Amino acid sequence: MPLWPFGSRKPDTAEEKPADNPGIPEQGTPAPLLEDPDVDSVSDRPVGQSDCPVKLAFCRSDLARLAFEYLADEGYRPCYDDAGDVVFKCEGLVYIVEFFESDLAFARIVLPGIQDIDDDNRARCHSAAIAAAHDTKAVKPILGSKVSLAIEMFFSTPQHVCEVLPRCCSALRSAMHEFDRQMLQGG
């Protein structure tokens, strides 16, 4: 079976079905094409379907599987988290690749939890995260109880996410080092 067919991803034979692995999500039903005759307008589209003008004939689990297979082929040891996102380790850091059923032409690569935020360091964390994002292309801070860094992107073909994944990891690592430098200087 080709790695990324555009069309139905339901396996026809037992040989094409994924191995019994509880960590791999089942393949979902492909999103309707925008030119689907049963969908007259965006408002008729089922909730959670993308408004993206790219023709979509795949689902979130297909995207996750493509990223998983790419990372495995590159020698990483990816796994799926409870939400079905792809998790992998690169140069000692854990990354998460997220896809969203609500927008199947959008991906986020996250370097999670690089710093805990508490009342004593909240202002410094915010200022250091903003400085790190400002000094690093495409990086966006996510601030909650911890600082995480992310790169969010739109893509025209799913392979584009895999093609830029190494550069995204490098940019996130660079932003983390800048964040650390800013924190040591007092934010």
Could you characterize what this model shows?
The protein is of the alpha+beta class and 187 residues long. The chain has a domain of 126 residues: Yope Regulator, Chain: A (2-Layer Sandwich).
Number of strands: 6
Strand content: 15-25%
CATH class bucket of the domain at 59-184: Alpha Beta
CATH architecture name of the domain at 59-184:
2-Layer Sandwich
Q: Which structural class do the helices and strands define?
A: alpha+beta
Question: What's the helix and strand layout?
Answer:
Blueprint: H1 60-73, E1 79-80, E2 86-90, E3 93-100, E4 103-116, H2 122-135, E5 139-143, E6 146-154, H3 158-184
Helix pairs in contact: 1-3, 2-3
List keywords for this structure.
elongated, disordered N terminus, 187 residues, alpha+beta, Yope Regulator, Chain: A, six-stranded antiparallel β-sheet
Summarize the structure.
The protein is of the alpha+beta class and about 190 residues long.
